[in-house]
Amino acid sequence: MPDHGLTEKGAAMRLAELMALRQRIAAGVLVSLTERCPLSCAHCSTAATRLGRDLDEAALLGFLRTFTSADRPDVLMLTGGEPLLRPGLVIEAATAARSRGTRTAVLSGAFFADGGPLPSTVREVARAVDHFSLSLDAFHERYVPRRNVFDVLDALLGTGVHVSLHLLADGPADPYPDEVGAQVRRRFGTDVPMLVGQVRPVGRGGTLRPRPRPPAGPDPWAAAPCDMAAWPVVTTDGAVTACCNQDVADRRVRPGHLGLGDIRTTTWQTVRERARARPMLRMIRTVGPVHIATRAGLPADGYCATCHRLDGSDAAREWTDRAGTGPAGELLQSAAVHRGEAGGPAALVARHGPARHAHLVDPGQGPAVRPRQEHTP
Ligand code: SF4
Questions:
Q1: CA 249–ligand 1 middle distance (angstroms)
Q2: How many angstroms separate the alpha carbon of residue 368 from the centre of ligand 1?
Q3: Are residue 125 and residue 168 in the same domain, yes or no?
Q4: Residue 176 structural domain
Q5: Closest Cα to residue 307, out of 374, 258, 240?
Q6: pLDDT of res. 211
Q7: Is the pLDDT score of 212 beyond 80?
């Protein structure tokens, strides 16, 4: 088995550890540093271009300074677009977060992987962060060869940071993750866990081919909790939203019930409290938006689209206020989080991607068995 010296890494964070926190409310915060990217992958869920918008640097650093050692997220997840177009900001943000006890993960498309040595700025980023993920899929490979990505993984492992790959499958039968997964295991053993998602019909991915809108679910009265409303998300205009729904992040819709503030004016403590205690968000996590809409007499036609429609509905707000306020609402929410965490990271991944690859998130664990949810955001 390869030895990449991972015992020396201090506070570094494994992918499974990161994913184990993914359903805990406000255990992490996702930050989009930029909508820019030098690649033009056909499936890009954010439709990033070379000319996209950047998050305001001073506003972000000011927001991170509101973290305290007693009240801060466990994880700061930096994404984009391509966050490594702003390596200085990645380092500053990770350093600020680390001073409060928050660990940082970064997800890059590896545009810098040209077959040469690791660029010094990327090496500095690797020292500043606690987890370094690279994207690899058939669309990325049109710009960045797989062998170059593997060489970057080797170099990153040499710095002591924990790494992972974000792979994409184009449908449950796509053999791509099997092929790449086998190569990764041969070259890196269990040092490179893999998170396998699937191409989604959002951003440029929506233009790849006609894809149906995700169904609301077979039974509008059934509880279908949203897994994606646990970590607040900072979008490039500085708004903080309750989930990573791409239509919200891209400002196509901004439902009021998903707004948690703005990093220029809202502290982490306020964001966390709003995320944790708002009855509407509690019930979205507990029974899901379709059930709420059905209770409120609203039509349901798509999972997240139904959620967006809850905005401004007095009937939805009255029902969620009744069900989700106070200690009873808190208890319902805790039970839902607990249920969602059952089965660990692989079960969570299996609900949102091809189930047969979910165990790759935690090499050494057995395959996950729960089938994918049809209403993933
Ligand atoms: S249902 Fe969709 S829009 Fe609503 S909180 Fe969940 S991910 Fe966001």
A1: 11
A2: 24
A3: yes
A4: 6-207
A5: 258
A6: 57
A7: no
Q: Give the number of the atom of ligand 1 that is nearest the alpha carbon of residue 307.
A: 4
**Amino acid, single-letter form, for residue 206:** G
CB of 109 closer than 8 Å to CB of 41: yes
pLDDT digits (tens, 9 = 90+) for 240-281: 999 988 888 887 889 999 999 999 999 999 999 999 999 999
DSSP 3-state helix, strand, coil percentages of the chain (rounded to 5)? Answer: 45, 15, 45
* Nearest CA, atom 1, ligand 1: 304
| H runs (alpha helix) in 160-252 | 176-188, 246-249
262 in Cβ contact with 239 (< 8 Å): yes
Q: Is the omega angle on the peptide bond into residue 81 within 30 degrees of 0, that is, cis?
A: yes
**What tens digit of pLDDT does each residue of 46-67 get?**
767 788 899 999 999 999 999 9
Pocket of ligand 1 (CB under 6 A): 226, 228-229, 242-243, 245, 258, 284, 289, 303-304, 307, 377
pLDDT score for 10: 43
Instruction: Assign residue 189 a region (left: φ > 0; alpha: ψ between -120 and 50; beta: otherwise).
Output: left
Task: Kindly report the length of the chain.
Answer: 377
Supply the mean pLDDT for the chain: 88
Rounded CA-CA distance 113/149 in Å is: 6
Residue that the structure tokens 């400002």 belong to: 251
Cα–Cα dist 135/130, whole Å: 17
Q: Does the residue 356 lie in any domain?
A: no
DSSP letters, 34-49, are: BSB-S---TT-TT--B
pLDDT tens figures, 291-315: 999 999 998 888 999 999 999 899 9
Q: Is 359 inside any structural domain? A: no
- Tell me: pLDDT of 216 over 60: no
Q: What is the DSSP code (8-state) at residue 125? A: H
Give the 3-state secondary structure of residue 243. coil
Quick one: 121 and 255 in the same domain? Answer: no
